[in-house]
Amino acid sequence: SPDGRLLQVEYAMKTVRIGNTAMGLVCKDGVLLVTDKRINDKLVVAESIEKIFMIDDHIMSTAAGIISDARVLVERAQSKAQENKLIYDSPVDTIDIVKDMCSLKQLCTQSGGLRPFGVALLVAGIDESGTRLYKTDPTGSYYEYKAVVIGEGESDVQEMLHKEYKESMTTEQGLNFAVKALKQFLGDEFNISRIDAAVVKNDTKKMEKLDNAAIEAASKNK
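RESULT FIELD:
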């Protein structure tokens, strides 16, 4: 626009702000992602909705915004992870995945005939450099966080994170907090079946999806 704003990028950011709520927390024993599947139709099979994606054994991602856009970025990241393993015979670093993802996002903000990706992603993993959690936005910018939330619950849940997050939290305590925050934000709409959670532990360095029993137990903790 004449005043220097990239309106398509701003619209993409607004798309993220009305997307499903997703959060990530770096804990003392690993890194955790928790997201709201946002099931709007009771006839939908909850298990068929995937909102947390495996990029490699030790790296995972979740998104807010246009999930089909996220799927394209995740599949590209999965290919890069496999390529790195074949060429260098070692697991890819989390930051390399994030940089490649954001380079494509940025390209789409300045090229004719393209639109920006209408999605923000959280990328979490454990590599040789340690436990990492990154937030990427539609502009192609990325930042590393200890704890972060994206989507429609961003302002409410981020405030809770500032008050209650501690680096000494275990992943179990982190899950308790995340489920409590979503329960408070969603209110009467909260349901165990609409929550998706996964963790990468320091000892195994492998992504593990958490089942409904673990999420239900977390929802009962104060």
